[in-house]
Amino acid sequence: MPFTIAIDGPAASGKGTIARALAERFGFHHLDTGLLYRATGVKGGDPIQAARTLAEADFGRKDLRTAAAGQAASRVAAIPEVRQALLDFQRGFALREPGAVLDGRDIGTVICPTADVKLFVIASDLVRARRRAAELGADVDAMLMQLRERDARDAGRADAPMIRADDAVLLDTSEMSIEDAIKAAVGAVEARLAG
Ligand SMILES: Nc1ncnc2c1ncn2[C@@H]1O[C@H](COP(=O)(O)OP(=O)(O)OP(=O)(O)O)[C@@H](O)[C@H]1O
Ligand SMILES: Nc1ccn([C@@H]2O[C@H](COP(=O)(O)O)[C@@H](O)[C@H]2O)c(=O)n1
């Protein structure tokens, strides 16, 4: 059986950074599931049709990491048919051998409820806004508003809301360096592998 790591949490909390590091460390595949929603959001037209017809070329766009793409993603992510259209691909990815790390909002609750390790990564709103603003060269206050708006939409939607799974390890990276956050995540995985 493949080993599955589910990483969820609010925007810019450090999920992707940790997910990439874990995948490299343990030789697992990595899927940034937010990219599926970003690609759907920026594709235009009917979002349900967009999600159903996502293709390689949709992931080559240069604007997928922008704040606008994040907002567009969170709007289409509230549509149940969009989520349904992206479900099988994510579940299939999670079955890849020898293991897979998926990061998003509903991985530990909906996509991989039986994941071997679940992490819920958080950081204070201001820390997240500062990190994302530095990354995108954007204004911190504007970023703070955008992240809060996106988090509220993601946590408040009826279908697969962003929520910590009961069995997820909470990792608050507000006061942690990237190295320390990765170390803590590696520790959680190694503990599971050992026992
Ligand atoms: N512990 C940390 N200390 C300082 N900076 C960090 C830390 N973790 C992540 N970062 C930085 O914060 C930014 C956001 O991190 P990352 O992209 O991993 O977040 P995310 O949760 O995957 O975001 P998204 O929800 O948009 O996918 C990046 O620029 C990253 O380098
Ligand atoms: N499993 C997921 C992953 C993402 N979303 C939505 O996509 C938006 C963008 O995600 P990022 O991780 O790239 O920031 C996010 O705000 C969610 O609305 C999702 O619903 N489920």
UniProtKB/TrEMBL annotation:
Q: What SUPFAM superfamilies does the database record attribute to this sequence?
A: P-loop containing nucleoside triphosphate hydrolases
On whether Glycoprotein is a keyword of this UniProt record, the answer is no
Annotated GO molecular function terms are: kinase activity
Q: Name one Pfam family in it.
A: Cytidylate_kin
Which EC number(s) does the record attach to this protein?
2.7.4.25
Q: Which UniProt keywords apply?
A: ATP-binding, Cytoplasm, Kinase, Nucleotide-binding, Transferase
| Enzyme class (EC, first level) | transferase
**Name recorded for this polypeptide:** Cytidylate kinase
Question: Which organism's genome codes for this protein?
Answer: Paracoccus albicereus
Taxonomic placement? Bacteria, Pseudomonadati, Pseudomonadota, Alphaproteobacteria, Rhodobacterales
Chain's gene name: cmk
